[in-house]
Design brief:
The chain has one domain. The longest helix has 34 residues, at 145-178. The chain is built from nine helices and no strands. The chain is globular, with a radius of gyration of 18 Å. The chain is mainly α and 208 residues long. It has helices spanning 4-19, 23-35, 37-60, 62-67, 70-92, 109-121, 124-133, 145-178, 182-204.
Length: 208
């Protein structure tokens, strides 16, 4: 098992990474503002579930196989870009007025959770990041490498849950203020749609 000092350092770095702008926390930010705090928190849970798969892949050595396959990387990134473009299309066409949010009705918790899972798993940069990041904190002299990877992955997920949860909580408060005005709702929808399209384009042209 990693030492306490290593875990504490790793946790601090993970929190900073969680607060750095990226596709996952921007998704949480936008969905929380559009759909509310509960929806945002379920997106966070979905993203953390995706991180469980990435942790297992690194611990089992599957991530290295994936990273070596340019075809797998390309297929996954294009699928992720297409999904983000689909989210943008949904937001752009969402009605506004009164207390309506994007999509006119709040999305089901299961749907938001699934959205987080798909978003995380369809981003090939995440598994490559895990493959490069987690082993830096592993010391073979302190036990099984696979077990240390699993432990570090758990700490990273905890940090993600806390940081993304905070983003969801505060973004929802801002979104509630926008929902009082049809014009503000429309502006928020276009902002969110533009963010999703930008993320889709960034993912589509990304390289390993």
């Amino acid at each position: 098992m990693p030492s306490f000092d290593i875990l504490l350092t790793f946790f601090g770095v993970s929190v900073l990474l969680g607060l750095s702008p990226g596709p996952d926390n921007l998704l949480v930010l936008m969905q929380s503002a559009l759909q509310g705090r509960r929806a945002g928190l379920f997106v966070v849970l979905g993203l953390c579930t995706g991180l469980l798969f990435h942790t297992a892949a690194v611990a089992l050595g599957l991530a290295a196989v994936f990273a070596a396959s340019s075809t797998a990387f390309t297929v996954l990134k294009l699928g992720g870009a297409a999904y983000l473009a689909y989210l943008a299309w949904q937001v752009f066409r969402a009605p506004v007025g009164g207390t309506a949010t994007a999509g006119s009705q709040p999305l089901a918790a299961a749907q938001m959770y699934r959205r987080g899972v798909i978003m995380n798993l369809s981003n090939p940069k995440v598994v490559i990041f895990f493959l490069a990041f987690l082993p830096q904190f592993v010391n073979p002299a302190q036990g099984g490498v696979g077990l240390q990877i699993v432990c570090l992955g758990g700490v990273f997920i905890l940090a993600t849950l806390l940081t993304f949860g905070a983003i969801a909580w505060f973004a929802a408060s801002v979104g509630q203020a926008f929902q009082r005005s049809a014009r503000a709702q429309r502006a928020l929808n276009w902002l969110a749609g533009s963010v999703f399209l930008g993320l889709a384009a960034r993912l589509a042209i990304s390289e390993r």
